Structure formats: structure tokens, C-alpha cells
Amino acid sequence: MVTKTVKLNNEDGLHARAAALFVRTANRFKSEITLSLNGDSVNAKSIIGIMSLGAFSGEDIAIAAQGEDEVEAVDNLVHLVENEFSIM
């Protein structure tokens, strides 16, 4: 299992567009991926789960993955958050 913590620096946190991009990116990987905030963890491949966290700008979220592509999954999701959900 690989886990990394990253700060939400974008203005709106994990709002609908950012959450959709996060889920779309997470679904590219075979690993099981979770997103955690303040002790609550959700499936990172579920937009409902992510939206239920209510993650705002300035908060630290933990991204964890377990599976054959866990390192790549976490690195890509951290990169997405660090780049404020801008598509490359």
C-alpha cells in the first residue's frame, strides 16, 4: 500500500468539477484507491463518496492505493491535486 498526503490548493477544494476529474483519473488504475480527510475514508473512484467528504481549499487529504499500479496511481492523483486540477 502506498499513501501520500497533499494539500488542496485550488480555490474551491474538491467541488464538482475537481471531484469529477479526480474520479476520472482514479478510474484509469486497477488498484483500490481511497481518499481520506479528518478520519473519514471513501472510495476515490466514487464521485458521491468524494463529494461527501466536503474537502475545502487548504485542507490536507490522504490518497492511498493498493494493487499492481499503486505507485503510479498515487503519484498521478497527487500530481493532479498539486496542479490544481488543471488538465495537461
Automatic annotation (TrEMBL):
InterPro entries found in the cross-reference section:
HPr (IPR050399), HPr-like (IPR000032), HPr-like_sf (IPR035895), PTS_HPr_His_P_site (IPR001020)
- Please give the name of this protein: Phosphocarrier protein HPr
Q: What does this protein do?
A: General (non sugar-specific) component of the phosphoenolpyruvate-dependent sugar phosphotransferase system (sugar PTS). This major carbohydrate active-transport system catalyzes the phosphorylation of incoming sugar substrates concomitantly with their translocation across the cell membrane. The phosphoryl group from phosphoenolpyruvate (PEP) is transferred to the phosphoryl carrier protein HPr by enzyme I. Phospho-HPr then transfers it to the PTS EIIA domain.
Localization terms from the record: Cytoplasm
Give a single Pfam family match: PTS-HPr
The record's listing under PROSITE patterns reads:
PTS_HPR_DOM, PTS_HPR_HIS
Major site of localization recorded for this protein: cytoplasm
Spell out the Gene3D superfamilies in the cross-references.
Answer: HPr-like (3.30.1340.10)
Q: Which organism is it from?
A: Peptoniphilus equinus
Give the residues annotated as coiled coil.
none
Q: Where would I find the HPr domain in this sequence?
A: 1-88
Q: Which UniProt keywords apply?
A: Cytoplasm, Phosphotransferase system
